[in-house]
Amino acid sequence: MDLTLSETQAMVQQTARDFATRVIAPKAHEIDEEERFPFEILKGLAELGLMAVNVPESLGGSGAGVVSYALAMQEVAHACASTAVTMAVSNMVGEVIAHFGTDAQKNVHCRKLANGDYVAGSFALSEPEAGSDPGGMRTTARQEGDAWVLDGAKQWITSGAHAGVMVVWARTGGLELKGTRGISCFLVEGGAKGLKIGRAEDKMGLRGSNTVPLELDGCRGELLGQLNGGFKIAMMALDGGRIGISSQAIGIARAALEESVRYAKERKAFGKPIGEFQAMQWKLADMKTQLDAAHLLAMRAASLKEAGKNFSSEASMSKLFASEMAVRVCNDAVQIHGGYGYMREFPAERHLRDARVTTIYEGTSEVQRIVIARSTLG
Ligand code: COS
Fold this sequence. Notes:
Layout lengths: L6 H27 L5 H9 L17 H15 L1 H20 L2 H13 L5 E4 L15 E5 L2 E12 L6 E7 L11 E7 L5 E3 L13 E14 L5 H37 L1 E2 L2 E2 L4 H29 L5 H25 L10 H10 L8 H13 L1
Parallel strand pairs: 1-4
Antiparallel strand pairs: 2-3, 3-7, 4-5, 5-7, 6-7, 8-9
Helix pairs in contact: 1-3, 3-4, 3-6, 3-7, 4-5, 4-6, 6-7, 6-8, 6-9, 7-8, 8-9, 8-10
The protein binds coenzyme a persulfide.
């Protein structure tokens, strides 16, 4: 098995790493502290082609593939997890539109997501009473002439207040199409009439990302993909999205490990650096091993998707392992830093808060286990 990166993959990784180190990392603390949406950084990411990494070049994207996307996501998350989730959702929205949109939809929205005309894209599936079970959604859409009109509420929508375009799911089926079968997918433009943005959530982590509830009150949308075929679009998008969140978790955990190593070499106790104690060495060894295992799972899922093979269960394994690994590794990083690890001044505290949601969004660990178990049982 050859794990060597292609020229394109190595270049995308290096481009993302340079920008993350030079521009994003120095601002990460302030973005978190001030809950500041990083407009200027997102513009910079778009200029580097990182807001549509796996969208074809013919639609304005980078066409660099899924492995490149996963590597870029790791680098950005290593610097700032809030910026990374905004980038992840925008990339996912660009891919969904590139895959299911009409030529007109693709040409407008993919290009604007890729070139930064849209600062971000949003993915509006969850509702106040339908998160893990999107088949239970209540938002409806009805046709009025050529247009579709949506009514309902969406919850926890990343970048909702700033998105140029959102993919929004709603019920279109009659009584005979209950559950997952009667759901369609729509494109709603930012600022559309009838789209009301609620107050930004006050979150534990990812405080620089924007998370809002939406109210759809006679909101106009355009059908994306087939009528009543929306649930599959959501599932396919989330399969790919889970590779992005795995990579985000890996990036956060890698930052936590690197800071732990630095601290373990500098901090002295009982007359020597704490890194010379076996208690610290074993912790660092476990952190590194889990991190590399998560990276390999992410690379496998990304390679399968890139090769056009089935990757749903592998993406779930990757997301399950990487997100839970990140919480453990970031928790260990706080422990290694001792009292300082609990202080806002040290990044270890932010990493733990940022990592925590990765076991929840884009499918909880419990949902990932459902997907993996179904595929294992056949
Ligand atoms: N790709 C394509 N199609 C898929 C699919 C996938 N990965 N997973 C399921 N489908 C299809 C099924 O084949 C089925 O099609 P038919 O109606 O033609 O038989 C349909 O979708 C319904 O599938 P299923 O019966 O498995 O749906 P469930 O309601 O049992 O849901 C889970 C399955 C739990 C896996 C799904 O609801 C899920 O992923 N939930 C989490 C949602 C999530 O991640 N939310 C976070 C939102 S973003 S923060």
